[in-house]
Amino acid sequence: MAIQSFSPLKRISYFQKRIVNADINTVLLNYSKSIFYYAGTTQPSILIITPEDYHLIVLRGLDSVTEETWLDPDKVSPGRGYGDVKERLKKWEIYGGCLGMELDILPTYLYLKLSEMLSEFTIIDVSKLILDQRKIKDAKEIEYTKEACRIVHQGHQRILDVLHEGMTELELSSEIEDAHRKAGHEGLYFIRQFDYFMGRGPVASGENLSRIAGKVESISGVGLSPSIPMGASLKKIKKGEMIVVDIPTYFHGYHSDQSRTYVLGKSPESCKYLYQGMKEIADRIIQVLRPGISCDYLYNMALKFADELGMEPYFMRLGENHKKVPFIGHGVGLELNEPPLLRKNNQEALQEGMIIALELEMTNSPHEVVKLEDTILITSEGAEILTITPRDLHDV
Questions:
Q1: Strand (E) positions, 148-263?
Q2: Does the pLDDT of residue 203 top 90, yes or no?
Q3: Could you list the residue range(s) of the whole structural domain that residue 59 is in?
């Protein structure tokens, strides 16, 4: 099956078929990423979808919605709040049944309010239905992801121009961020996780490579204070230190996730050894990526490759923890981390049109840490690497 062309209204019709199969009478969506996916706008709105119909109730920003949405005008109307939902359902003669919402991100107070207001309905979670649909990207989503990858490359190009001894991680991060913004990065990225925060993304060097924040299972950096203990710090970068840069970019709703490792000066032999082994593992995994292969198979193959190359003691270990990170990648899309998760015990199979980030790390000592991460499209032929920054160890 070829990559599908951009046809936004088919997104709703496909979702309608899914809710019929799940015996759901109506779905109420109010999360900006979902409204954007199905209606093309992030203005404050409520999207109601039933097996036969749909309607967007715009709470604020109607003029903008009129310009942005691909929905027919008769499917859009202004509204004042959730009372309009009940009125719309009455018009459709829907008085009860199963009501789907995204319960993993719905605030408790709103859930309680809607449970009372729509007491004749049983509220269930439809987050998985939506995330499953979003796994498969169409041609326009792939185009936007490629542009995000072009933008992230501009930041890495800037590193080669400005990195010097004595500059702080924060100064380096600021240069990268500035290059991203000038290239078209929209300035944010999105993680579907309660109370998640990380500034602009990790930049870590030297001993900071092994100081891992509790919120992630990846190189995090230490940040500027305990209030946001992830990202670049005021530590000065020294000659011979390894530096990992993992700042994502965002373009027209879609992310690029890329990590590269740099050394200020000449790379130590230990660093070259770690990086060469890690890149070999990544290259072998990319060779076997194709539709139908399962996530846990990929994870197990990565462990096998590491063992064959003598890299098992270093592979996917972080900080002082000798336990391996249980995944080697994740989906990328409207949110930076989406299904599928390339982890052990996940038997989900890759499909054509999925975009994933292959994320590998190696640790020998607190100062000797390397990382390589690429955004990759799964095609009928195998894997297409969308990130364009050279995948080598960079001496600057």
A1: 203-205, 242-245, 249-251, 254-256, 260-263
A2: yes
A3: 8-134
